[in-house]
Amino acid sequence: MGGRNETKLMYFILLGFPTTGEQQLLLFSALLLVYLLTVLENFLIILIIRNNHSLQKPMYFFLGNLSFLEIWYVSAVEPKMIRDVLSHDKRISFQGCMAQLHFFVTLVCTEYVLLAVMAFDRFVAICKPLRYPLIVSHKLCAQLVAACWMCGLTTSSIKLGFIASLSFCDVDKINHYFCDISPLLNISCSDSSLAELVDFTLALLVIMLPLCAVVASYICILLTVLKIPSSQGRQKAFSTCSSHLTVVVLFYSTTLFTYARPKLMYTYRANKLVSVLYTVVVPLLNPLIYCLRNKEVRVAMRRTFTSALSLGLCLSSTTPS
């Protein structure tokens, strides 16, 4: 096709961000710091939820699963990205590329559905408060989280099946910092129209259906809250879902630009910068949003740190000099 060599590629070269000298060291330090902070923040949220009885609620069960997911989400992309900043060898094997793509798409799709499930939880809590314990049971919570992961795995497996079946010839350079669907479609030398159609259709289903569920949930929440007579009651109701709504807006607004658009949109360099937002910046901000805007999490965090500090002081005082 077009005179291209039909030999099968053994590896790809991730072009990443072109930097030189001091810029490389600065970018490496910044990315490493952000990655470590993101993992630490999400790990602390999981620890705080597990160790505080006041947070043993469906809302925080879903939040703990979101934090667990985001630890793996950033770990699927950022370590390779950080290494490539300083390395001259930016190669990734074909199998490694497909593995990274599989994990990343699985986690992204799972997060879309999980955010919709969290919106459903807030809808039941605010619109049907008396029936909330009966509807959102521990069994249902576990089933919903399992369904989120199953949806992500299924979607990713279908997409990967079509991407892996494409032929990649003498063009081995991927103009990105990780293996994503659009750049792989762009360098394929075989007919990728079916893979593009499947990718676009699944992207619409996995993005738009959860988004519609989120919008419908918050419309019902808004209508219910507006019926509350006191301003204090309305403020309290809104505060229970403001953190989740902020995270939804950040995640959907950045990923929607990348995944719900034609392949040719990938040619714009701005796409790489947008990808940095949802692979680096948003995962860093999400734990901060939930901690800073949620009173129960802040109280539990102070209690946890106070207990840890007291334990440390007690241990140091009993240690023989």
UniProtKB/TrEMBL annotation:
Q: Where are the transmembrane segments?
A: 25-48, 60-79, 99-120, 200-225, 237-260, 272-292
Primary site of residence = membrane
Q: Can the keyword Nucleotide-binding be found in this entry's annotation?
A: no
Membrane-related topology note: Multi-pass membrane protein
Q: Where in the cell is it found?
A: Cell membrane
Q: Which CDD domains match?
A: 7tmA_OR6B-like (cd15224)
* Entry keyword annotation includes Acetylation: no
Superkingdom of the source species:
Eukaryota
Q: Name one GO molecular function term.
A: olfactory receptor activity
Q: Sorted alphabetically, which keywords does the UniProt record give?
A: Cell membrane, G-protein coupled receptor, Membrane, Olfaction, Receptor, Sensory transduction, Transducer, Transmembrane, Transmembrane helix
Q: What is any one of the record's Gene Ontology cellular component terms?
A: plasma membrane
The record ties this protein, via Pfam families, to: 7tm_4
Domain named G-protein coupled receptors family 1 profile is located at 41-290
Instruction: Spell out the family assignment given in the record's similarity comment.
Output: Belongs to the G-protein coupled receptor 1 family.
- PANTHER family, per the entry: OLFACTORY RECEPTOR
What protein name is recorded for this chain?
Answer: Olfactory receptor
Organism field: Zonotrichia albicollis (White-throated sparrow)
**Species lineage, top-down?**
Eukaryota, Metazoa, Chordata, Craniata, Vertebrata
Q: Which gene encodes it?
A: LOC102073490
